Amino acid sequence: MSNIRDDVVWAALNRSRVLFDYNIHNDIHKQFEFRKQVLLSDKSLTKDEKDHAIRFLNETYDREKVRDNSGKRRICENCNQKCFATLFCEYCIRNHLKENFSNWSSGNDNIDNLIQKCQMEAIEPKRIIEYIPYNKLQNIKYLTKGGFSEIYTAIWTDGYYIKWDSKEKQLERLGTQEVILKKLENVENANLSWFEETRSHLSISNKWSRIVECYGITRKPSERNYMLVLNEMEMNLREYLQQNHYQLTWKERIQIIHAPEVITRKQTTKASDIYSVGMLMWEISSGYPPFIDYEHDYYLATKIVNGMRPRIVPGTPLEYRNLMVQCWDADPSKRPDASTLWNKILKIYKLNEPDQLEIHGSFTSKVYQFEIFSEPKNETEEEQKYDDFNKSNIWKNHNASIISNVFKVVNAKLSKILERNLKNDVQNDYKVATMSQHTNEIHNNPNLHSEEQNKLEIPDKIDNIDNI
């Protein structure tokens, strides 16, 4: 039996991350060295636990060095190439995958080429995209309709790759694993736009741990449509907010907002994405879906186009409020770009004195899409007095208690949400509830993220995107 106390190790890993200063430790190498020293000096850990924690830190550091093509290289003892990783060799892994190209096929040359390209860019064992034979999936059950895509649960008998054995020169798998299957509609008959969406999704998941893992693609032999094979998440953002608002600090709420960084990695940004982040910020601050006591119909859409926005929750930190309002400005040109948005969120996250709100609720929302309306405008302060937040009976008994100083860097209480956000890459070792966007999305594109996102609300499920 292991003597490793997982909760203690994880708390120490959290502390090591929260403590470093982005202004001082401004690259992955400085951050790694700082966190390593923090862990080594942590008196709450035994020697074995320190070794355990530092191994996880090394895994993260290896992945980031390979991804960023940065850091000190070493000579691999097997292939003699100069590699960045220390726990594995990225070149050995890629060569191994390349040698296996002839042993599988999806039945579609475009998909085969896409998967092969992803494999030749693999940055670690846990981030390998592959074609998964349908017979490796068992107990397949229909779950829901996500947007226009059918969602299924399944058991993947092999599981994803977790380790490179340098002696045997083989990749080792996790073993039996629960996954989500998302059907890609009309793949054979559609133009290549679906393929570009799929390519972006797989490529980003292949490199960035802040995205819900996509393990690859599968296809039922008797059907024409392919399916994405995704990591199964246990809880969506909305459910988590409803269950945990009494415990969430403002630091932890701000830590939930990850979409801006993901968008930054894509290089191009749509103003509608920034608008949706503003709505997401409001839901995080309140614990409720926006416009919960309105019918989601034409009339609500008209009100929004005419400037109505959710009323700001009392106690919301000023910096957070200002950023949220800027994100949902009616004029897209006045919304921050993705880089600015992420930097401002990071700045707010590092502040020392935001407040904690105690909010709870159990509400769901539906999606309404609009296309043709008059030019959007911003609501006046007078108009905002009469919006849904002010009218809602739900809030009559709402008592928002303010707890100061919970946003300080050294926070004795590290909540589950912070743990999950930082723990995405090792979630199969430390089982925690996480959020996913893949079981009920609201995108226009039936397969993946649409280029034109003109929705009134946020998705019911979003990604975890913080790495350890």
Automatic annotation (TrEMBL):
Keywords: Kinase, Transferase. It comes from the Eukaryota. The keyword Transferase applies. Coiled coil: none annotated. The keyword Kinase applies. InterPro entries: Kinase-like_dom_sf, Prot_kinase_dom, Ser-Thr/Tyr_kinase_cat_dom, Ser/Thr_Kinases-Pseudokinases. Residues 449-468 have a biased composition (Basic and acidic residues). Residues 1-363 form the Protein kinase domain. Residues 443-468 are annotated as: Disordered. One of its GO terms (molecular function) is ATP binding. It holds the Pfam family PK_Tyr_Ser-Thr. This is Kinase-like domain-containing protein. It comes from Rhizophagus clarus.
